C-alpha cells in the first residue's frame, strides 16, 4: 500500500499508472473478511447502549424513495416523516436526509426548508449509469440547481470491469466539478459502486480507492436496485478503505451502505462495524449514513418498545 | 434389528412461520408423563420467540384471511386427513401426557380429528349464520359480513393437551385469523407434534405458530403486544388471566375469558363445541350499497 500522499498524484497520472496502483492494493482475504464481519455482528447491544444506537441510526438515515411511481405528494410525506419520524414521540431524532430522484429534488428542498434535514439526489442516470457523460452531467446540474445538498452518483461499472479505471476516475472528477456551487456550499458527492455488480472483494477495494482518489465525499455500496446490496462484509471493507485513506492523507471520507438493511438489529451491527473499524469519528451522520426506507419504521418500533416496554406493531408507524 | 439398537430420541421443536426452530434462548425444560417419568425435553420459549411468532402470524394473515372460505375448509380437512395417518403417534403422546389408557387416548384423538372436520365444514357457513342482509330505511342494500380479527394469541388448555388444543386452534383459523399458540406447559408434546402435521397439510407457514414453555412468561409479552389483535385466555388461571386482561386492554384486544376448564378438569372438551369460539374472533363489516337509480315513485322498492 502506498505510504505518502504524493504517490497518489502519480497514481492517477495515466490509465496504466492507475491500474498499477489499484492492482497493487493488497488482495482481500474473503474468508477472513466475512468472518470478521460476522463476529462483529454477534455483539450484544442492550438497554441504554441500544437506545443510543437506535437514535444514532435514525439520525443517520437517508430516507429514500426511488420509485418510478414517486409523486410530489409522496416526497412531501416522506419529508414530513424525516423531520418528525414518530409523531407520538417528539424526542425521536430527525433523519439525516431525504434521498430522491433529481426531478423530485426541488419538491424535497421546498418541503424540508429550514428543517436541518438535507436533500440528497441520485444522479448520473441512476441506477444503471448507462448514458453519455453529457447526459449524466446534465442530470447532476439539474439536481444541484434544484438545491440538492448531496449528489449520489453511480460509477460506470462497465468501464470499471473492463479495466478503464481512468475513465471512471475522470467521470467522477467531472461530476465533482458539477457539484460546485458559486453561491453556497458545494453539494457533497456520494459515489455508488454497486458492489453487487463488482463480483469480487478485490474490485470493491479498488473501487473504494478509485472513488476516494477522485474526490468522493462519501463512498456508497449500492443502489438498492440489484440482488446483492449492502452486506456487513462489503461495508467493513469500505470502512477499512476510508480508515486507511485518512491515515495516509488526513482526509476523512464518509461511508453509506444502502439497500437491504431493514431491521434495527442489522443497523446496529453496521454501527458496531463502524466503531470497531473506522472508529468513533465516523459515528456521526456527517460521516456515516444508511440508505434505507423500511429501516426507519423498524427502528421506531424498537424505540417504542424501549420506551413503553411493550412490543409495538406496524399499526403504530406510518405506511410509506 | 436386535434389542441393543440405540434409541433415537425425538428433538421436539417449536413451530414458527412454517419452520421448526429451537427456542431463541436455547433453553429447554423437562417434560414428564402424568406419573413423573421423563418423556422428552421441550423448548422453553422466551419473549423473543413470542415476538418472532407474532411477526410470522402477521405476515401470514393477508394470505390466509384472503383465501376463500372453501379453500380454508379444504386445508382444515386436510389436517384431519394427515392426523388420521399419524394417529398411533398421537395416541401414544396423549396417553403419556394425560395418563389415559390406550383406548381412552384413542377416543380423544378420534374426537380431535373429528373436531378438525367439524370446523372445516364451518369455514364457508359461518358467514351466512352471523352475517346477512339488514333491513334499512333507504334505497340501499345493507350487508353485514364477518371478517377475521387478525393475529390471535391462544393459551391452550393446560389439562386437555390435544383435544382441548385442537378445540381452541381450529375455530381461530377457520375464520381466517392467524394464531400464536402457547401449548400446555406440562404437556406440550402433542402440540409440538401437531406442528409437524400442520406443516404437511397445505396450511401456509405462519398461520399457526406453536410455542412451548412457561405460560405466564410467554403470555405476558403477547398480551401487551401492540400487533396482537385478540387473546384467548383458556389456558390461564384466574390470577394470570386478570393480569393478561389488563395488559391486553392497552390496544383494545378482544379477550375471550378463561373458562373454568382446568378446575379439576371439569370442562368436557368432547361436548359439542357450538359456534361461540368461531364468533369470538370475528369483526362485523357492514357495507351500504345503492340499489340503483330511483324510479319515478322516488323509491326503488
Summarize model confidence as the mean pLDDT of chain A.
94
**What spatial order of strands do you see in the largest sheet of chain B?**
7-6-5-8-9
Q: Note the run of SSEs of chain B as H and E.
A: EEHHHHHEEEHEHEHEHEHE
Shape of chain A: globular
Q: Percentage of helical residues of chain B?
A: 40-55%
Task: Using a beta-carbon cutoff below 8 angstroms, give the protein chain pair with the largest interface and the number of residues from each chain.
Answer: A-B, 9 and 10 residues
| Number of spatially distinct domains of chain A | 1
Low-confidence stretches of chain A: none
Run of helices and strands of chain A: HHHHEHEHEHEHHEHEHEHEH
Number of helices of chain B: 10
Tell me the radius of gyration of chain B: 21 Å
List keywords for this structure.
heterodimer; A: 320 residues; alpha/beta; TIM Barrel; eight-stranded parallel beta sheet; globular; B: 301 residues; Aldehyde Dehydrogenase, Chain A, domain 1; three-stranded antiparallel beta sheet; 10 helices; 41% helix; 17% strand
Amino acid at each position: 500500500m502506498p505510504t505518502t500522499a504524493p504517490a497518489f498524484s502519480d497514481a492517477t497520472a495515466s490509465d496504466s499508472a492507475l491500474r498499477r496502483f489499484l492492482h497493487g492494493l493488497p488482495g482481500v482475504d474473503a474468508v477472513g473478511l466475512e468472518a470478521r464481519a460476522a463476529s462483529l455482528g454477534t455483539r450484544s447491544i442492550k438497554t441504554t447502549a441500544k437506545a443510543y444506537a437506535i437514535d444514532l441510526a435514525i439520525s443517520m438515515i437517508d430516507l429514500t424513495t426511488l420509485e418510478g411511481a414517486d409523486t410530489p405528494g409522496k416526497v412531501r410525506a416522506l419529508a414530513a416523516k424525516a423531520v418528525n419520524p414518530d409523531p407520538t414521540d417528539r424526542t425521536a431524532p430527525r433523519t439525516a436526509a431525504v434521498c430522491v430522484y433529481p426531478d423530485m429534488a426541488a419538491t424535497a428542498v421546498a418541503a424540508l426548508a429550514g428543517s436541518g434535514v438535507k436533500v440528497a439526489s441520485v444522479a448520473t442516470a441512476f441506477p444503471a449509469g448507462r448514458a453519455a457523460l453529457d447526459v449524466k452531467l446534465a442530470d447532476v446540474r439539474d439536481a444541484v440547481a434544484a438545491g440538492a445538498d448531496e449528489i449520489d452518483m453511480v460509477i460506470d461499472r462497465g468501464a470499471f470491469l473492463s479495466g478503464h479505471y481512468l475513465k471512471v476516475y475522470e467521470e467522477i472528477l467531472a461530476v465533482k466539478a458539477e457539484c460546485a456551487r458559486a453561491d453556497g456550499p458545494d453539494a457533497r458527492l456520494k459515489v455508488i459502486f454497486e458492489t453487487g455488480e463488482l463480483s469480487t472483494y478485490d474490485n470493491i477495494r479498488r473501487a473504494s480507492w478509485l472513488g476516494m482518489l477522485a474526490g468522493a465525499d462519501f463512498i456508497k455500496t449500492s443502489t438498492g436496485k440489484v440482488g446483492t446490496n449492502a452486506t456487513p462484509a462489503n461495508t467493513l471493507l469500505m470502512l477499512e478503505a476510508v480508515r486507511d485513506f485518512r491515515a495516509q492523507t488526513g482526509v476523512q471520507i464518509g461511508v453509506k451502505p444502502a439497500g437491504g438493511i431493514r431491521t434495527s438489529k442489522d443497523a446496529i451491527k453496521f454501527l458496531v462495524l463502524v466503531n470497531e473499524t473506522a472508529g468513533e469519528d465516523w459515528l456521526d451522520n456527517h460521516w456515516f449514513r444508511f440508505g434505507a426506507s423500511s429501516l426507519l419504521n423498524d427502528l421506531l418500533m424498537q424505540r417504542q418498545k424501549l420506551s413503553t416496554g411493550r412490543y409495538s406493531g406496524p399499526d403504530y408507524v406510518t405506511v410509506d | 434389528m436386535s434389542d441393543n439398537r440405540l434409541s433415537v430420541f425425538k428433538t421436539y421443536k417449536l413451530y414458527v412461520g412454517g419452520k421448526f426452530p429451537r427456542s431463541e434462548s436455547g433453553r429447554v425444560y423437562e417434560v414428564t408423563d402424568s406419573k413423573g417419568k421423563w418423556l422428552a425435553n421441550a423448548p422453553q420459549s422466551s419473549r423473543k420467540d413470542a415476538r418472532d411468532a407474532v411477526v410470522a402470524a402477521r405476515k401470514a394473515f393477508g394470505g390466509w384471511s384472503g383465501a376463500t372460505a372453501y379453500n380454508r375448509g379444504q386445508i382444515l380437512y386436510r389436517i384431519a386427513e394427515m392426523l388420521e395417518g399419524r394417529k398411533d403417534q398421537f395416541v401414544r403422546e396423549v396417553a403419556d401426557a394425560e395418563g389415559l389408557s390406550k383406548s381412552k387416548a384413542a377416543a380423544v384423538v378420534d374426537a380431535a380429528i373429528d373436531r378438525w372436520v367439524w370446523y372445516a365444514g364451518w369455514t364457508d357457513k359461518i358467514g351466512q349464520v352471523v352475517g346477512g342482509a339488514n333491513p334499512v330505511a333507504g334505497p340501499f342494500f345493507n350487508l353485514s359480513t364477518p371478517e377475521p380479527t387478525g393475529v390471535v394469541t391462544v393459551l391452550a388448555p393446560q389439562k386437555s393437551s390435544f383435544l382441548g388444543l385442537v378445540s381452541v386452534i381450529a375455530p381461530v383459523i377457520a375464520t381466517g385469523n392467524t394464531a400464536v399458540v402457547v401449548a400446555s406447559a406440562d404437556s406440550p408434546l402433542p402440540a409440538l407434534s401437531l406442528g409437524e402435521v400442520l406443516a404437511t397439510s397445505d396450511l401456509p407457514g405462519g398461520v399457526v405458530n406453536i410455542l412451548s414453555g412457561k405460560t405466564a412468561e410467554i403470555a405476558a409479552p403477547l398480551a401487551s403486544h401492540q400487533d396482537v389483535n385478540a387473546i384467548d385466555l383458556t389456558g390461564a388461571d384466574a390470577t394470570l388471566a386478570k393480569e393478561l386482561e389488563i395488559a391486553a386492554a392497552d390496544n383494545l384486544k378482544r379477550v375471550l375469558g378463561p373458562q373454568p376448564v382446568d378446575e379439576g378438569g371439569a370442562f368436557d372438551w368432547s361436548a359439542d363445541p357450538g359456534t361461540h369460539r368461531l364468533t369470538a374472533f370475528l369483526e362485523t363489516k357492514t357495507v351500504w350499497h345503492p340499489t340503483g337509480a330511483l324510479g319515478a315513485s322516488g323509491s326503488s322498492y
